[in-house]
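Hey,

Quick one before I head out. I ran the complex with MRU overnight. Inputs first:
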Amino acid sequence: MANQSGQSERKLGTVALRWHGHSLELLDQRLLPTEEHWITAEGATAVAQCIRDMVVRGAPAIGISAAYGVALAARHAGGGDWKAEILQAIRVLAESRPTAVNLFWALQRMERVFHECHSLEEATKRLAAEAEHIHEEDVDANLAMADHALELINPESAISVLTHCNTGALATGGYGTALGVIRRLHERGRLKEVFADETRPWLQGSRLTAWELSRDGIPVTLNADGAAAAILARGEVSWIVVGADRITANGDVANKIGTYNLAVLARHHKVGFMVVAPSSTIDMSLSSGKDIPIEERNGNEVREIRGIPLAPDGVKVFNPVFDVTPASLIDAIVTEKGVVKNPNITGMQALFG
Ligand code: MRU
């Protein structure tokens, strides 16, 4: 099911998840932009492995994939204690990556449905339906967020924006969060240029965002992460638009490493800084960004690229793949439920309880 909301493929962008009822196909994002190769995951363990290895990545897409993983676990359960098998699959999926709360949000939702089921047959049907709902709702949220963001930006003429990482159709159920806003600006004829940070070390910006935007005819200029300050100094960029992996009750935002740098730069250059994320990314159980578990990945992601050394063999590396931007540096958090301007605990509670 590549197209959950009946939206045309063109409008939603290149969607990286295809649900077939008995298996989940994932576009292998490790191989882009040079190769378009789909991997078939037939069970929860395979889905967890794909999330861990970043075959599929991006907070919402991770949550959706995990939900389909639970649906697959139900389909394959039944050798012995089907309830224990499904709960074990949920545990395996929960251990795949730590930072994006969408993963745990989706698994909790699946587990609630699981506990309501009285037979394996019922669980198989209802868990598949719930995963499909999670997928559909994500696409709808992306479209709604683009509407809210456009109202907020309200551009009288075409503007340029800068973005970080990949937040597009590849990272979501389709359309995108921050890239959804960029798509909408383009659809309305209000986009001059997107500057895309290459996003070291995994290069989501150059390998995925530049690919996704070029494919959809959206004007993109790729820049090294270190060029962002120079670009803002030229005064051409009106907004920095990014996604999020987890937003806490006070409005702090965990997102791809390098996001915090951009927020500091935006404040210095008086450029708007907008975070676009569905409510599945909000974690009101954590009071501040200090409590967010930040994933650190293998140092080889920094030391080498596709096996080619970029640094002295064995050099010590620090590779946190997310950072936390304090709420005080954020002008607006845009969700499908509405916008929190100058986020703080009061604004967050008003919208998310
Ligand atoms: O490590 P990744 O590629 O999963 O990190 C992705 C990001 O940080 C995105 O900005 C975030 O998940 C929002 S995606 C709509």
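Residues 160 and 192 are 5 Å apart (CA to CA).

Talk tomorrow,
K.
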